[in-house]
Design brief:
The chain has 381 residues and is an alpha+beta fold. It contains 10 helices and 18 strands. It has 3 domains: 2-145, PAS domain (Beta-Lactamase, 2-Layer Sandwich), CATH 3.30.450; 146-218, Orthogonal Bundle (Helix Hairpins), CATH 1.10.287.130; 220-381, 2-Layer Sandwich (Heat Shock Protein 90).
Length: 381
């Protein structure tokens, strides 16, 4: 919003033929701006040049609320149609500013045809460009899409709240179990049983902290600092080895297939961590005595590393959110399986840090397939 304040000033920073208005000096010499019908309307000199370099959506209205100038972004967002500003809240703000000459700011949510029905959040600043008070002058609207910023803020708030909850649960359980052991000091069998529970909670807490540390290392989506050549055969073998004990305990077969000797540029340990998280999820959400398959193949300039299971599948409504931190399709089941809720977020960020992306296909009751799409390493081995 700070850069917007300078936009009005920038539009008035022309030395010749300026007049003073409530928003500062503005050029008095009129230029012309085309309407949709090809007619020419008066537009202060320099305004179009200033608006062309702004990152925000910009609209200039005349005294009759006709659009004299509109950026391409404003039309793309569906704020402007022809010579009309079609968002009622914006039009009301423009009329208030024209009446009293006061700059106004705010935030609005818009659902427009140009957005395919999506609701988009905008930060808005409206300012007069001419003798506004009583004069019915020009009004400038600067509109900036805030949807992504709001989404990031919501994720951050959720992360803090969920982290506090996830940490509090095992810590509280450990405190309660410690008190129980004290009360059962004369019962060796009870002590052993509760001590085992304490180890489980301590392991869960350790895994959560370790996942948070891993996520903090790579969530900025920056490239790997010291990438090296990584053989996917090694990554697959190591990840399978780390997940084999959990799979064996449930009678689940782990298998590998596909192309051999594929190489990517990156961090071997991070790739092993990402693949192990996918394998652990596949094992946790698959029925006993089923099969989990890891496959590799090259498609053009991309290497695909996939994990397919025969598990319960993921509802379509959840597919877009499963890579969010702490998001769980079935919280009760996740509690039983001991998941931290960070595994798929780690997979997403590890893949992004390697210049790739992760996709998922799933059908309820028939299993899921997660695929890492990684760029082929440049140059010879």
């Amino acid at each position: 919003m700070d850069s917007w304040g300078s936009a009005v000033g920038a539009a008035s920073a022309y030395p010749d033929g300026v007049v003073a208005g409530p928003a500062g000096a503005v050029p008095a010499a009129p230029a012309t701006g085309p309407g949709e019908d090809g007619a020419r309307h008066p537009l202060p000199a320099g305004i179009a040049a200033v608006l062309a370099v702004l990152s925000s959506s910009a609209v200039v209205l005349d005294s009759a609320d006709r659009v004299l100038q509109a950026s391409e972004a404003a039309r793309t967002f569906g704020l402007v149609e022809g010579e009309r500003l079609v968002v009622g809240e914006l039009l009301a703000l423009a009329r208030q500013v024209r009446r009293d000459g006061e700059i106004r700011e705010g935030e609005i949510d818009v659902s427009a045809a140009g957005l395919n029905g999506r609701t988009t959040s905008f930060a808005v600043r409206v300012a007069p460009l001419g003798p506004a008070v009583g004069g019915g002058g020009l009004v400038l609207l600067l509109v900036e899409d805030q949807t992504e910023r709001r989404r990031v803020e919501e994720i951050r708030r959720d992360f803090v709240a969920n982290t506090s909850h996830e940490l509090k649960t095992p810590v509280g359980a450990l405190a309660l179990l410690a008190e129980t052991i004290e009360d059962a000091a004369d019962d060796p069998e009870a002590v052993r049983r509760f001590a085992g529970r304490m180890r489980q909670e301590a392991t869960r807490l350790t895994n959560l902290v370790q996942d948070m540390i891993t996520l903090s290392r790579i969530q900025a989506a920056e490239p790997i600092p010291d990438p090296g050549l990584v053989r996917l055969d090694t990554v697959v073998a190591e990840a399978l080895d780390r997940s084999r004990m959990k799979a064996s305990a449930r009678g689940i077969e782990l298998a590998a297939a596909g192309a051999r000797d594929l190489v990517v540029l990156g961090d071997e340990e991070l790739l092993v961590t990402a693949l192990r998280n996918l394998l652990d999820n596949a094992v946790a959400y698959s029925p006993e005595k089923t099969r989990v398959l890891v496959s590799t193949r090259r498609v053009g300039d991309t290497i695909e590393l996939s994990v397919a299971d025969q598990g319960i599948g993921i509802p379509e409504r959840d597919l877009e959110r499963i890579f969010e931190r702490f998001y769980r399709v079935d919280p009760a089941r996740s509690r039983v399986t001991g998941g931290t809720g960070l595994g798929l977020a780690i997979v997403k960020h590890v893949t992004a840090a390697h210049g790739g992306r992760v996709t998922v296909t799933s059908k309820e009751g028939a299993g899921s397939t997660f695929t890492l799409h990684l760029p082929v390493r440049p140059g010879p081995v």
